[in-house]
């Protein structure tokens, strides 16, 4: 006989949430049309040294670079924290949607995947932002994730991005780009 979730001890609910999160990671499939790049498929991509060093200019500079996003995503995967970037990218793709009919369906999918409590790839949002986003879904517009996306951007900029720049992952990319540059013969 099923007792319902309310009757379960808190430890069981925590284990279930952890299991759901891990299962979501294992079953993850990009559904929002964004392509993260070859690093997410487990192969090393080659970058120009100027490009890799340019990612240090600003977080927004990194996000404007397709290969920067791919490298940052690869780093986040090593920390099992790629959901913020994936949410941000899904929001960027969502904002390009012009069909009003598709807006609501895409908005609901993004909300269920990233924003709602206990979502498979739940992003770290405060209760007020989560509820404001839920209310925005009643009349889905291209701006319904604006506040949640901004908070996620700030979190990545202040937390994940500095760790990325200080990481062995980034240093390895810079060293690889530097050695590729030295190894290439120059034409005169």
TrEMBL record:
Its main location: membrane. It is a lipid-anchor. It comes from the Eukaryota. It is found in: Membrane. Residues 58-174 form the RGS domain. Keywords: GTPase activation, Lipoprotein, Membrane, Palmitate, Phosphoprotein, Signal transduction inhibitor. One of its GO terms (biological process) is negative regulation of signal transduction. GO terms for cellular component: membrane. It holds the Pfam family RGS. PROSITE patterns: RGS. GO terms for molecular function: GTPase activator activity. Regulates G protein-coupled receptor signaling cascades. Inhibits signal transduction by increasing the GTPase activity of G protein alpha subunits, thereby driving them into their inactive GDP-bound form. Plays an important role in the phototransduction cascade by regulating the lifetime and effective concentration of activated transducin alpha. May regulate extra and intracellular mitogenic signals. PANTHER family: REGULATOR OF G PROTEIN SIGNALING, REGULATOR OF G-PROTEIN SIGNALING 16. This is Regulator of G-protein signaling 16. It comes from Varanus komodoensis. The gene is RGS16.
């Amino acid at each position: 006989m099923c007792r319902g979730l309310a009757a379960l001890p808190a430890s069981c609910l925590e284990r279930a949430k952890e299991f759901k999160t891990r299962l979501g990671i294992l079953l993850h499939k990009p559904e929002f049309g964004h392509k993260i790049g070859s690093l997410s498929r487990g192969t090393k991509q080659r970058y120009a040294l100027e490009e890799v060093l340019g990612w240090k200019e600003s977080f927004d500079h990194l996000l404007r670079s397709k290969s920067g996003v791919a490298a940052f995503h690869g780093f986040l995967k090593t920390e099992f924290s790629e959901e913020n970037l994936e949410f941000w990218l899904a929001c960027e793709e969502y904002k390009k949607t012009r069909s009003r009919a598709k807006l609501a369906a895409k908005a609901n999918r993004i909300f269920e995947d990233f924003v709602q409590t206990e979502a498979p790839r739940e992003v770290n949002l405060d209760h007020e932002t989560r509820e404001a986003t839920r209310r925005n879904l009643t009349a889905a517009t291209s701006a319904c994730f604006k506040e949640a996306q901004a908070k996620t951007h700030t979190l990545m900029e202040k937390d994940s991005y500095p760790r990325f720049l200080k990481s062995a992952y980034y240093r390895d990319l810079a060293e690889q780009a530097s050695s590729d540059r030295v190894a290439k013969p120059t034409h005169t």
